Amino acid sequence: MEARVSRSSPEVASNSFGNWLQLALPKLVLAPTVVITLIFVYGFILWTTYLSFTRSKGYPIHEWVGWLQYDRVWHHPRWEVAMHNLAVFGVLYVVLCMAIGLLLAILLDQRIRMEGTLRAIYLYPLALSFIVTGTAWKWMLNPGLGIQKLVQGWGFENFEFDWIVSEEMAIYTVVIAGVWQASGFVMAMFLAGLRGIDQEMLKAASIDCASLPKIYWNIIIPQLRPIFLSSMVILVHLAIKSYELVVALTGGGPGYATELPSTFMYVHTFTRNQLAMGAASAVMMLLTVAAIMVPYLYSEMRAGRRASQQ
Amino acid sequence: MTGAKTTSMAQYWDTPPAARRIRWAPFVIYGLLGFFALVYLLPLAVMLLTSVKPLTEIYSGSIISWPQQWTIDPWVRAWGSTCVGLSCNGIKGYFWNSTKMTVFAVIISTAIGMLNGYVLTKWRFKGANVLFGLILFGCFIPFQIVLIPMATLLGKMGMASSTPGLVFVHVVYGLCFTTLYFRNYYMAFPDELIKAAMIDGARFFSIFLRILVPNSLPIVVVTVIWQFTNIWNDFLFGASFSTGESAPMTVALNNVVNTSTGEREYNVHMAAAMIAALPTLLVYIVGGRYFVRGLMAGSVKG
Amino acid sequence: MASLEIVNIKKRFGDVEILKGIDIAVEAGEFLVLVGPSGCGKSTLLNMIAGLDTVSEGEIRIGGKTVNALHPSERDIAMVFQSYALYPNMSVEGNIAFGMRMRKVPKEERERAVQEVAKTLQIDHLLQRRPAQLSGGQRQRVAMGRALVRKPRIFLFDEPLSNLDAQLRVDMRTEIKKLHQRLGATIVYVTHDQIEAMTLATRIAVMRNGELQQLGTPAEIYSKPSNTFVAGFMGSPRMNLLPGLLRVEGNDWRLEIGIEGTPAARLPLGALPEAVRAYSGKEIIAGLRPEAVTDHGEADGATRAVVDAVVEVTEPTGPDTLAVLELGGREVTARLRPDTALKPGDHGRFAIDLAKMVWFDPATGARVV
Q1: What's C73's domain CATH number?
Q2: B:C CB pairs within 8 Å
């Protein structure tokens, strides 16, 4: 009896530290990532936001100027072009990617041969860097040596395809290259969705209705709604972030005809020594993204919670 | 039933019902699919063809004309002697920069992400979900918002324009993705296995190393492929945080292609682009299935 | 005129022959159950009747008309599925009315039809709900409502009760039977559960490996199975199949049951039909349902024989006691009185009702008589 009691005391002491360690260990392990996120995501966001309210130029100047920089950005002619381009590019990019992606997914779903090969072909652009994509398309869209020359060589001597050097049309070349790259992704998402549809439900639909387009319209596509939503969110996100594509394809040009908020920000921050303006434009980019992501994430979480409550 | 027959039966049940089959002539379907396939392949084909033609042919022929004279000289020049900025030693140095940067960044971010996923799913504590949300948010921000502070910080730490600096940046901003992937994967991992291990006496790290890690191969492959692709292909961080000799492949490529001095050596440009694209293309071809899973996993939230 | 004719239907998939030539004629008002183990082809056959799968050879005729080329929606059929297969993006009302909407039935008529069907199935209070908000039983009713509203010539059911829990399954089985009686509808019903088959069917088609083993009423299938497979598949507990040697001494026929080594048991047989007597001196298989083997006390003369056997296991079920007996080295399941005193290890005397005996050829498995 006695021996056991005296032996257990030191064990209890070391156990309690061991136990504490076991309890704290998960949190300790997660902590570095949390700290990193706090500093490098949230902290940096705050830092940039702070800078956007200062008079910083080539280097940070800690003098508060309120909304001055935002004003300057907002009324800057290049920013107006950038916003206009973002709207045009964004809408076309999202709509075309979804339309082509859905079409390809429906076609691939028809149990065709070589499905795996075709899928691989539609998806490979995603594996490429935007710079590579931009380089390739820039070459193809070259008026003197690219597609224009090719088609003219086929006999259509009046064929013109010099969009890439046209101030009005250059943004559409960015659309072309962007859609080429990302529509495969949308296709993959829709294909997965189509494959997940209950087979027996489709049999029932077939008994109810002979017309396949009507079945798609009334039954299949409504069930793909979550995929529409999540691909739209991801595409919008990509569109707002797109920087490398423009750099490689047009360099922002001709002139600044294909300027986007992302290129505006980069140029003013690193080339034109307008740190605060760059910061302000970055903040506005963040707000635009947040305006779309936050409601979406919020509704997803609520739907998730509602589903788990049922 | 014999094995062979069962496989056929399984195949049979797997075919979608007649219900979903479009009754158009198959050639319409194949025609459309083929057309799109050509459009998708065209840029790659053009790049390849252009990269093996001599310059004279590029000017005289069209982008899809077959080379009359094959030459791998553009590839050799791109690798070893083309001018990037002021130095004319080809892109090989930058290729190695990218390789070093990517390998380290992928390994570190994957390892940490794995631990994070483990903690978040098997060791739930109060506030874990909030922390996960906090971490996840980092995946969605446009990275322009962190460029200025990061540039300043790297300068102060003496890591501006260096490969370690880029590794650091990619790890920091890759953690949200890797954590997300592993967290989603481990959520579906049976808790009973963990409980059984605990009863057998395993503790935090033993469970992780002996039970989770050996069973994580699919998600590790997905994460590695996804991270490799994203980090190798990145341009924004590379352009913002490194200059000159320490720049990654993408920055060098952009430099090569967009130089406005002298004659445009399109074939060399295309060769350089191909060299830049090959690693991720190879990874895609070899691990395509996992690539797709990575795509899907990234878009599954909460 | 038959309502549904399945004429020499064959189905091939690559090299595999899934259905090897099925011939069934279903009269109007019949409840035909296709039953068999998984992989036997019953669902394939049902899909082919519906038009959801193509026919490799043969004809499907509905109402006398060959429908092989017709789209499912043009065959005047309705189908109820195992997974209910309701459209998740529509309300109950929308689900039931969808087919009518596609056929451009005017709104008033649609609403009337939906109300009528909903009341019959007692789901009229659920019309505005979505499928996700319903229980399994409710969803199954909606699925049936969708089928009923089409007023089809033929109803097809594909294992509709498999997803329900045991009690619900029994309740819904009765509902389906009542519906059949009230509507007089022609029904083809697929199940792997032989109890469902026995209780619901007017005729049963037992299938195996793509072939029709037997087509008959439940009573026929039960007491006169056409081969050892049907005998073993239908009825629970399974029919006892006793291989033995048929011997005759003068006018006394006997079945010698035993496996090498153990002493044979001799089962005295009464008068035997000629087809069975042809097996004299040869191996034959005797089929006996458990209820044909009972306590000795019930034996009564001509059609009953008496044997001695050892009790191995007893299973009281409530209404009776199932006992596994060892007879000549073979296991025989018997139904004894619920209050029987026999215990495992006991020797006992048992009565065998020879009138219920069925004979099978050992080589082909087919019934001799």
Answers
A1: 3.40.50.300
A2: 23
